[in-house]
Known about the structure:
Blueprint: E1 6-8, E2 16-25, H1 30-40, E3 45-55, E4 58-67, H2 73-81, E5 86-93, E6 98-100, E7 107-108, E8 111-112, H3 118-131, H4 135-157, H5 165-175, E9 180-186, E10 191-197, H6 200-205, H7 214-228, E11 232-238, E12 247-253, H8 260-264
Antiparallel strand pairs: 1-6, 2-4, 2-5, 3-4, 7-8, 9-10, 10-12, 11-12
Helix pairs in contact: 4-7
Amino acid sequence: MVRDLYMFSRVDKEAEVVWFRLTYENTVHSEADITSFFAEKGLDIRFAYLDCSEDPLRGKYVMFTEAEKGRDIQGIADELGNMDVVLELEWGFSKNRVIQSVDFPLHLLGERAVIIRAKTFVNILNIVYENVPQSEGLFTMMGLKNGSGAVRYLRELTEVNESNFLELLKELLMAAGWGILDYDMDTANLRGTVQVNDSFIAEEYGQSDVPVCGYISGFLAGYISQSLGRTVQVREKRCKSMGDGFCEHVVSPVPAGVNIEHILRGESN
């Protein structure tokens, strides 16, 4: 799991930071051949990552290294590009010695994504809370839509069913940096609790007299409802911002014939 958006190389301040981004034919020896090439050229890997998840026939290799100033990097790149397994190649100098640990443009759940600080997200929440009436319901509605959309995308990649949907959600939240999830769920009766440890919203929000993770409650409701084909509602009972050790979201069924959107708008009987 990527933990840092970028880092600065500090090994040799007199050297130049060089990056290579290449697409290669995915064979059993491709990655080893490319790594060996860099070693033969005396280019030590400072940071690198491989990705073959998008296309099993093509892999992506991103590598950052340091090279003494004045070295013929163009010649090295030409040799690398002429390797049989290399299909496409880009390279360049990082003038500010920045090493990126994620690719650009970043994609998450099949869509263009950006990384923002948790504090920035919470600042947006606070501005809306202060200026928009009934904003708690607004963020819950946003969470509903995004939770449902996450399931629809996951179904394009793998089977989502009653036995695995919560484990998939657990991995998704951790990978996205939202928190560590635990759950106690009776899927037959649509009742249970979802516990989120180290919630990114509550961690950054600070002290509060009321729960602050309404967006996550909405996301859970949308995700669970879309996964099971039955509508649930989710409310946050405990929140770390209130001094609790973790955030706890209570799951319960919605009365027959009532959509959760109507409950949020106060339209149910």
